[in-house]
């Protein structure tokens, strides 16, 4: 029910553009810009629903499952317009981009319900933490921009099945998520870290006390006895489980991507080539640094630096996972990896705030911290639109947003994500602060 209210608010936030069209600069002033509506014509979906798979049309720079989703909705759009376009039921009045956006939004709303329910299930003893997802302005303002709610839901499902030790299903949803966006892949990194930690402790290469699990900690608090070392066979089983998870993810990804490759390998490859060659995007660390220096950074340089810093961040997360006093929760490590990817990525679009939100709900569900992070993200959301509007406006300078405000907003959104990372790190190294571990005596499996 609460998510339904959020869906209504999200639709209302886009209402100006729905009624008047996605025109520049009004769509920025009203905060209702949408890639979905823009790409209807820019990627020639208005000409052919199969345009993402045909190199005769404009390149569609998204992963395979997003290509499929965009194309299927375009087929339905053309079909409905063909059936009802000449009747009184055609509320879109020849504005097929509106119908296309509406149909995509309906699917996105369904994904939001799935996301909320999944977080509620994954939260275990704290189902109320799903309110963070159900009521978030991050989703209200971000859901209508692009297709990012779908990988968020897929990753949440992967987390849920991981916590239930249903490795194949978890892997399947990782593969689905990676076919929509890259970042669900990072769950494998978090899982690898925990598996390696347990194996190293079993080989006595890490201190025994560093492998307390939630159940170990609960038992110790009741009996005052030190935890027993896990059997070697159990850690062999951990590697087998990790292999199942990884194999299921690979097979799932291949089953989605191979058909697209066979239809048009060049179209499938476009996402990866575009990601490698594109210039730094608005609100990224690299674009802001170039603006400060008044010398934009070269795409090749940014690609290298982005990869290097993200790799170093992953190494740091691995070190955290191996040195924590008790075994970190998988979602804590996953949040740190995804946050590093967002900070050092070549692009930071306003809807990317939806990537981190479900992980915050499962890793650090304190309303104060959520509020701080959300306020910073929403501030950036409005500032980036005003900045883009100023670039295309004929108004005099005193009526436009100063670029320094934009750069401050970029810094604030990155600092807010670093703040959440700091909160998670404190919880990892001081596990008694972790509100998830505190719930119900730490007895239930925690994300």
UniProtKB/TrEMBL annotation:
InterPro entries: UCP010361. The chain crosses the membrane at residues 60-77, 98-119, 139-162, 242-265, 302-324, 330-349, 370-390, 405-429. The keyword Magnesium does not apply. Keywords: Membrane, Transmembrane, Transmembrane helix. The keyword Membrane applies. This is DUF2029 domain-containing protein. It comes from Nesterenkonia sedimenti.
